[in-house]
Amino acid sequence: STPEFEQALRQCATEAIHLIGSIQDHGILLVLDLNDELTHVSSNTEHFFGLDPNELLGKNIKHISALQPLLSLIKDKKTAAHHQNISIGNKYQFNISKSIHDESLYIELTPNTIELDNQFKIESTINELLSIDRTTHHSDYFNLLAQYIQEISGFDHTMIYRFDSNWDGEVIAENCHNTSDSYLGSRFPASDIPAQARQLYTKNTIRYVANVDADQIPILSAPLYSDKTPDLSYIQLRSLSPIHLQYLKNMGVAASLSISLLQNKRLWGLITCHHKTPKLLSTQALLRCELIGNLVSEHLNTDQVQEQFSLDEQIILLFGKLSQFLWLPQQGIPDKILEEIQHLMSADGVVLSLKDKRHHFGKVPESVELEALIQWLHTQEGDKAFACDDLSFRFEPAKAYQHLVSGVLAGPFPFRNGSFVLWFRSEYPRHIHWAGEPNKTHVHAADGSHRLIPRTSFSEWIQMWPGHAQAWLPAQIMIAQRFGAALLNQIEYIFKLEKNEHE
Ligand code: BLA
Fold first, then answer.
1. Residue 6: CB atoms within 10 Å
2. Closest of 92, 74, 84 to residue 31, by C-alpha
3. For ligand 1, is residue 197 a contact (CB within 6 Å)?
4. Nearest Cα to 261, choosing from 290, 232, 302?
5. Strand, coil or helix: 228
6. What sequence ranges are listed for the domain PAS (predicted)?
7. ipTM of the predicted structure?
8. pLDDT tens digits for 136-174?
9. Closest ligand 1 atom number to CA of residue 208
10. Is the CB of 159 under 6 A from ligand 1?
């Protein structure tokens, strides 16, 4: 990628999507300070409950007779809550969500005109998801998940989208209904979901666009609060970024829903849903989707802990075998043990460096190249372990041997005392099925600047992907750090004992 492209990416990630200042038109937002004074109000209150927003702004909610039903709901200023079927005005009953953020109380009201499909059995869904053995039926689990979200939401097309370590992502399961487009196996570049959006999606796990063509309803502020833009991070009704709305239109999508899947607080993936026509969802359906998302996140946590636990057990055994050789470094390290260390990380090569003496096994760069790589690694940032799966894109000289080595995992990081472990993975040649050409998003504006725009075509674009190895798993990265740290401790301990003996 070029510097211009990098700059355009950064620019994309600076859009303050949580401060967009408007909501979607299927509900109302009221923002109160902790004294119940209305600091911000969406401009559509007249339409939903016959009250002019300017009559509300700056007033205490206690003094607005039509809003009295809200009083008991907002007494508690500490916990988020949902309430159903509250009558306000004489047109609608509302479902109400209350959230608290930054000394403000956010009240979202959506008319309960949308019926929840009560045929759907949420209890059996949860039981089913809990009972699948994920180690042996991994793909069944995600297929079923896509199917259940389809049934809960009624969306045409539901997909399970998994992020890579570099934040590109791939559709790993899907359920299509009334649609012929399939994105199964398609890859999307990281720039489709920029960093600030991913960050927001780790905090707030669901977002929903009912209609990409609907009016954006501005949020008005009371005079004293005109310089404070309400933070919509936790607001369901938030208008989504216009850049993203354009993306959805380009894809032929009118309504969109996405639910975050987190693994130990890191965004693991999304459940993404498309509908070809506008689609209103009931609050209960949204809550059910959120519940299923949370359940899956819990499963992902457990899976990672288990992966790590099993790796941890293997390291302890292996370290026991290795440590006798650390005492007698002149004897070298048997290949069999190096091979086991390599195997631990499903790597293709390994270098064990003990006080600057290198021991290696498997696919490893030639020694001059290896030393240059180690020099470069010394200059890299990282606090525990270093991992990459596209070495030659970061370290130019590695282009010469990218078939042999494209992935590097190192621990502990940064290196001390010339003692560390490097694991290598060879290039993993494969065809990438992109949904549209990923580079077709880069435009030069008239003023000479560069920016990214959403792609206009999502038809399959196949590319060979040289210079990439299979990505390291978070559990492997963690284990690399532990293994390296244990090694370093042992070496330093032996070093100290030897020094004491000499003195
Ligand atoms: C947000 N981009 C998103 C979201 C998804 C995607 C799921 C979350 C919002 C939502 O639920 O709709 C992308 N949607 C996908 C992908 C699939 C899908 C990968 O269905 C695959 C199946 N987008 C661009 C470019 C930019 C960009 C070039 O293509 C920036 C210049 C920005 N995407 C962008 C922004 C958001 C976004 C700013 C945040 C929207 C918001 O939450 O306000």
1. 11
2. 74
3. yes
4. 290
5. coil
6. 29-60
7. 0.98
8. 888 899 999 999 999 999 999 999 999 987 788 999 999
9. 11
10. yes
Which one-letter amino acid corresponds to residue 179? T
Q: pTM above 0.90?
A: no
Give the nearest ligand 1 atom to 238 CA. Answer: 43
236 in contact with ligand 1, CB cutoff 6 A:
no
Alpha-helix residue ranges (DSSP H) falling in 172-265: 195-203, 242-251
Mutate to test the pocket of ligand 1, among 1, 247, 433 (most ligand atoms within 8 A of CB): 247
Please report where in the chains the tokens 């600030």 appear, as a residue: 196
Task: Calculate the alpha carbon distances from 177 to 50, 129, 291 in Å.
Answer: 39, 21, 23
Ligand 1, pocket-test mutation among 172, 175, 193, most atoms within 8 A of CB: 193
Collapsing DSSP to helix, strand or coil, 230 comes out as: coil
For tokens 């042996």, name the residue.
Answer: 136
Both tokens of 303, joined, read 């899976």
Q: In what order do the strands lie in the sheet with 104-111?
A: 22-23, 217-221, 38-42, 28-33, 104-111, 92-101, 81-88
In short, whether 99's Cβ falls inside 6 Å of ligand 1 is no
The C-alpha angle with vertex 301 and arms to 307 and 159, in degrees rounded to 5, equals 105
- Tracing tokens 């293709």 back to the chain, one arrives at 348
Nearest CA to ligand 1 atom 4: 193
Task: State whether residue 3 is helix, strand or coil.
Answer: helix
Average pLDDT for consecutive 10-residue bins of the chain (503 residues)?
Answer: 72 90 97 96 94 96 94 91 90 93 94 76 89 87 95 95 89 87 88 94 97 97 92 97 92 96 96 96 92 96 89 88 84 92 95 92 97 94 87 96 96 86 91 76 69 80 84 88 89 85 76
